[in-house]
Specification:
99 residues, alpha+beta, five-stranded antiparallel beta sheet, 1 helix, 5 strands
Length: 99
């Protein structure tokens, strides 16, 4: 994900779980997955730690394909608030870049 701008942290890099992530704070997480090609997935997890989520994402195929990169997004409790039914000033756009 060389052209992606986000605070992170990365959860999976080059198909491997990132080490040193917090294993104590449990919260619902939002994250972005990429297979290294054309498949992307943005999802929300049940409450878990960053380290636990990194392990699950790197050792399984949660979307039916191996995860090359996973990025934790700012989310958790704010992701489930009812404000999502109102217009927002920021959003995520994924579009292919033509060489």
């Amino acid at each position: 994900m060389p052209d992606l701008l986000q605070a992170g942290p990365l959860l999976v890099e080059s198909g491997k779980g990132v080490s040193g992530l917090d294993a104590s704070k449990v919260s619902a997480r939002t994250f972005l997955l990429w297979d290294g090609g054309s498949r992307w997935l943005m999802a929300r997890s049940a409450p878990c730690s960053l380290a636990g989520l990194a392990k699950i994402l790197s050792e399984s195929k949660p979307a039916g394909w191996p995860v090359k990169s996973a990025l934790n997004l700012d989310g958790g409790p704010s992701f489930v608030r009812p404000i999502w039914n109102n217009p927002v000033r920021n959003f995520l756009v994924l579009r292919p870049i033509q060489p």
